[in-house]
Write a structure and sequence with these properties.
The complex is a heterodimer of chains A (110) and B (114). Chain A has strands at residues 3-7, 10-14, 19-26, 30-38, 45-50, 56-59, 62-66, 70-75, 84-92, 99-100, 104-109. With 110 residues, chain A is an all-beta fold. In chain A, strands 2, 4, 5, 9, 10 and 11 form a six-stranded mixed β-sheet that branches. Chain A has a five-stranded antiparallel β-sheet with strand order 1-3-8-7-6, with no helix packed on it. In chain B, strands 2, 4, 5, 6, 9, 10 and 11 form a seven-stranded mixed β-sheet that branches. Chain B has a four-stranded antiparallel β-sheet with strand order 1-3-8-7, with no helix packed on it. In chain B, strand 7 (64-68) and strand 8 form a beta hairpin. The chains are: A mainly beta (110), B mainly beta (114). The A-B interface holds A 4, 31-32, 34, 36, 41-46, 49, 51, 87, 89, 91, 94-103 and B 4, 33, 35, 40-45, 48, 55-56, 58, 90, 92, 97-100, 102-108, 110.
């Protein structure tokens, strides 16, 4: 069974304190790994897609990386507006649905 | 470019009732997926529609059903509501099936079953 595990469940950072969120996965052939941001009461907002080990993508203070077993979302010098739940999802074998992890709830304190 | 819109935003129903949730997909997107998100959990796949046909279903009972219309908008129907159906229901659209077209989500319908 395809599984996605995110850690930590919750993370509290001071403004400017860089850190990383982890997404480990067990799938039978990864086609793509997705990162989403979800604010309270809102739907997930697409951030990145990663396709193969070694790939990296960046957007503002966020950088996502991918290995054969896990992905990291690095947050550099976070600001309070980066506070949200970050969801990781995987897709296998083409048109299969996304399998989501439970998310990491990030709080950035000014 | 209009994003994914869902209605209503909130809904309260009684156990045993039926509910219909609606979704307008992003302009140009022909694939719609529905997900259920319980509090503190990641979204769980319910089903997907592509060109008005169901194109995959998750582990949900038959009382969860859906439709996609020619304009690619969609409905999720749930019969015989149970307390455990209380959740955020998310609709997502994509340009096409497959990994190169990420899902774009609406803000969901918060369903409370009492």
């Amino acid at each position: 069974e395809d599984q996605v595990t995110q850690s930590p469940e919750a993370l509290r950072l001071q403004e400017g304190e860089s850190s990383s969120l982890n997404c480990s996965y067990t799938v039978s052939g990864l086609r793509g790994l997705f990162w989403y941001r979800q604010d309270p009461g809102k739907g997930p907002e697409f951030l990145f897609t990663l396709y193969s080990a070694g790939e990296e993508k960046e957007k503002e203070r966020l950088k996502a990386t991918l290995t054969k077993k896990e992905s990291f979302l690095h947050i550099t010098a976070p600001k309070p507006e980066d506070s949200a739940t970050y969801l990781c999802a995987v897709q296998v074998r083409g048109n299969t649905p996304l399998v989501f992890g439970k998310g990491t709830r990030l709080s950035v304190i000014a | 470019e209009t994003g994914v819109t869902q209605s209503p935003t909130h809904l309260i129903k009684t156990r045993g009732q039926q509910v219909t949730l609606r979704c307008s997909s992003q302009s140009g997107h022909n694939t719609v997926s529905w997900y259920q998100q319980a509090l503190g959990q990641g979204p769980q796949f319910i089903f997907q529609y592509y060109r008005e046909e169901e194109n995959g279903r998750g582990n949900f009972p038959p009382r969860f059903s859906g439709l996609q219309f020619p304009n690619y908008s969609s409905e999720l129907n749930v019969n015989a509501l149970e307390l455990d159906d209380s959740a955020l229901y998310l609709c997502a659209s994509s340009l096409a099936r497959g990994v190169n077209s990420p899902l774009h989500f609406g803000n969901g319908t918060r369903l409370t079953v009492t």
